[in-house]
Write a structure and sequence with these properties.
CATH architecture of the largest domain: 3-Layer(aba) Sandwich
Number of strands: 27
Largest sheet: 9 strands, mixed
CATH class of the largest domain: Alpha Beta
CATH topology of the largest domain: Rossmann fold
Shape: globular
């Protein structure tokens, strides 16, 4: 736990823009952010926040307006995040790698007053700016920013200055199970997760955190970015994931903390194997963490062997800002548990009737706490379905609680496959397939057949691997009951994924149906 009084002070409740303002006074010359274009101290970050806030006001941004930012990880994006918060507007942070249709859909739904494109650090953002005929403005050392025409139809949302009620960020889900929804996260909910991330990871101002997770995703925004900066630590940002660049960064940039999704670690291991490296060269690294999707036991074991560190794990979703459970940095686990509930967060496992499930049994995970979303923007029906009486969030995820209070995620309620009357959890089939040495990662979906469902598995192989669907099925059959075995195994060059690295199972389910004809 952190004892430094200066850190305790910065962790007090407030608004997002309080982070650079306070650390500029306490550690002004220390490094705050680094990216491919340079480094910025806390004093420079605070100056940039003020400069950009003044620009937003001249652009007609009002309290309660939605400001859409199209870009990829860079220092300017962080400064803009704090600047938008400074004028009491909502930041709608969107990854530039989304298609024009996706960008335009989010813009229309949120009713953005302005769209800001950060083309200096993202070719895709530059293309979106050109498509929107945005005006390019110079920001000095912060580069350039392209600004769309003002949408006069934008109506400000109410703002009352209460961090627990005022929305700081409107985060759009990746749409893995349907159309994206805008999740309203308040200043208090995001800062609660930032504070908890600091405490449970033991982050101090001396840490240097690897920022590869997209800031457009709540994991990268709240846990990585805000958590790092709230601790007074420095954040090294990379715009896009590359296993070679990740390995180089961990080896040469003094990184002490690395957070990612399982797919990133799998790709990094694959890269190291091609170079014949049995261990990762990361001399300063002390803490590694995986989240965002299920962690397979085989991957966890291999990562720990290559890194020489325990791979920590956690669970959450956008609607929880995002974390609900997490393993502790001082407790090494040999299983793939996602840890215990965060301090201040309550968790229930409920049956289909909404009653508490018997101890040790699988049910839907419900959570309640200061991290829970305010609701879905402009979607009261979806909000009512997710937020239950008493302030509980029904996550839609299946889980069970272990004897020591740690939780295990068993899969998505909507992804549960019912085969011949038996329940098949995709995560169980994926764990078996991922244990094959030729498999980088896999994803399992259900496919409707007449009066039933069948299991379809999609796998991504290690480069040069010789495994075939037939050999993989034979391998899986040794560990799976007949009703759990895939009816079809499909090898893909790469699994479709969101910018966060999460596999897009909705696309795979559609592909599975198309393959059946």
């Amino acid at each position: 736990m952190i004892r430094d009084p200066a850190i305790t002070d910065i962790l007090s409740p407030g608004r997002l823009e309080g982070i650079p303002a306070r650390w500029a006074g306490a550690r002004g010359a220390a490094l705050a952010i680094a990216d491919a274009r340079g480094e910025w101290s806390w004093r420079e970050l605070e100056h940039g926040r003020r400069q950009l806030a003044e620009l937003l006001l001249t652009l007609g941004i009002r309290a309660g307006d939605r400001v859409m930012v199209v870009g990829e990880n860079c220092a300017t994006l962080v400064a803009l995040l704090f600047a938008i918060s400074s004028v009491h507007a909502w930041v709608v942070n969107v990854n530039a790698r989304l298609s024009p249709r996706e960008i335009d859909g989010i813009r229309a739904h949120c009713g953005a007053r302005r769209v800001l494109c950060l083309g200096d650090d993202s070719p895709d953002a530059k293309h979106h700016a050109e498509r929107m005929q945005a005006t390019r403005l110079s920001l000095g050392r912060w580069g350039t920013i392209s600004v769309s025409a003002m949408d006069e139809r934008c109506t400000p949302e109410p703002v009352d200055g209460n961090p627990a009620r005022d929305v700081a960020a409107l985060v759009y889900t990746t749409g893995t199970t349907g159309e994206p929804k805008g999740v309203m996260l308040t200043h208090a909910s995001l800062l609660f997760i930032a504070r908890t991330a600091v405490e449970l990871r033991g982050i101090t101002p001396e840490d240097r955190v690897f920022g590869i997770l997209p800031l457009s995703h709540v994991y990268g925004l709240a846990s990585v970015c805000l958590g790092t900066l709230r601790a007074g630590a420095s954040l090294y940002l990379q715009a896009r994931f590359s296993p070679a660049q990740m390995a180089e960064c961990l080896a040469t940039h003094g990184i002490t903390v690395c957070q990612g999704v399982p797919a990133m670690y799998a790709k990094l291991l694959e890269h190291l194997k091609t170079r014949g490296a049995p261990r990762l060269n990361a001399p300063t690294l002390r803490f590694i963490y995986a989240g965002g999707s299920p962690l397979a036991p085989a991957l966890k074991s291999e990562v720990e062997a290559v890194f020489g560190l325990p791979l920590h794990n956690g669970y959450g979703l956008t609607e929880a800002s995002p974390t609900i459970t997490q393993t502790r940095h001082d407790e090494r686990r040999g299983d793939c548990s996602v840890g215990r509930a965060l301090p201040g967060v309550e968790v229930r496992i409920v049956d289909r009737e909404g009653d508490d499930a018997p101890a040790g049994e699988t049910g839907e995970l419900w959570a309640r706490g200061p991290n829970i979303m305010k609701g879905y923007y402009r979607d009261p029906q979806a909000t009512a379905a997710a937020l239950r009486p008493g302030g509980w969030l029904a996550t839609g995820d299946l889980a069970r609680r272990g004897d020591d209070g740690a939780y295990f995620i068993e899969g998505r309620l909507k992804e549960l496959i019912i085969r011949s009357g038996f329940n098949v959890l995709p995560v169980e089939v994926e764990a078996v397939l991922n244990a094959h040495p030729d498999v980088t990662q896999s994803a399992v979906v259900g496919r409707p057949v007449e009066g039933d469902e069948e299991v379809v598995a999609f796998v991504e192989l290690v480069p040069g691997a010789r495994a075939t669907p037939a050999t993989l099925l034979e391998f899986a059959s040794e560990s799976l009951a007949p009703y759990k075995r895939p009816a079809e195994i499909v090898v893909l060059a790469s699994l479709p994924a969101a910018p966060s690295g999460k596999v897009l199972k909705a696309r795979l389910a559609q592909l599975a149906r198309e393959r059946r004809g």
